[in-house]
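hey so i finally got around to running the thing on that chain from the lab meeting. sorry it took forever, my laptop kept dying and i had to restart like 3 times. anyway pasting the input first so we r on the same page abt which one it is
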Amino acid sequence: MPAGREQEDAIVSKCANPACSQAFRYLRQGKIFHLSPTPAMQASTRAVKPSLHERFWLCDECAKEMTVVWSGGEAKLVHLDGQSGAKGSSPPTSSLA
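ok and heres what got predicted. didnt touch it at all, straight out
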């Protein structure tokens, strides 16, 4: 298997919130985020990361309090109200890298 291929083939298995251990089971639960790079981000990172399309899932509880966004060249969790969420130990913004 080519280097880096393992991450390309990885599937969503749990909530993207590191403080949450909820397992992904059904599409009807929680919220799936498909992040695509902006044209500027794509042009600046093409040599380093050929494909920046990422998928993340937040469980129902975490999706009420957080969203997933691109920040520079990485995905980050952002609390919707700027405060820590229900599962509490995550800062208002945290990297998913």
